[in-house]
Amino acid sequence: MSTNNYWIRSYFVPQNVQLEFNALQDGRISVQASGSFFGSFCDYVAGSGKILDKERPAVFEVSFETNYSLAKKVNTYWVLSTDYESYAVVFTCWKTLDDGTCDPEESYIWTFTRSLSGHSLSDLAAINDAVPFVCMSPRDFKTFQQDGGCDFNPFNFPNTYGMVFIMSTIFIGFIIFLVFFIYCLTKVSNGGVPQRKENVIIFN
């Protein structure tokens, strides 16, 4: 099952996202997820979940085996809408405010489809009806790129524990720091004399 649309506040949005859900014999749910970051860096994360109440199977908890602390905790997911065949809308809230409502900065919503070509018009109509129930707008949705990148084989799943995302983020941060450092060295070597004024260093 592939992810087609999403609502997520992130500077590093993955592409080619795919997920596999399976019901286990002990009543739990296995989850396998993959996606690419910064082009061709593929990451694979496995997790598990359970349905909290058999009378409400649309609500379940999931935790992922990852080194990324925010995803490692147990979070509750809600299936807002599905036809059990071609689409599903899933919502999760990772942090609640003092008044009991979800923090918009920690709320996520995805739509899923089995087709890489995207949702049908009837699917989109159902999705548009479901999203406002969690105070979001379909206009805020973006589309994941699906170009076939990142091989996904649930029977031979290379769990990387979220390390690709973490290392890629560190690498980007290092490049930014290096560029800034070289810029400062260039200014000094060109005769710029740093002066301190109101706790701000200024190069002349």
TrEMBL record:
Keywords: Membrane, Transmembrane, Transmembrane helix
Transmembrane feature ranges: 161-186
A GO term for molecular function: retinol transmembrane transporter activity
InterPro entries per UniProt: Calycin, Retinol-bd/Purpurin
SUPFAM superfamilies cross-referenced by the UniProt entry: Lipocalins
Name of the protein described by the UniProt record: RBP4
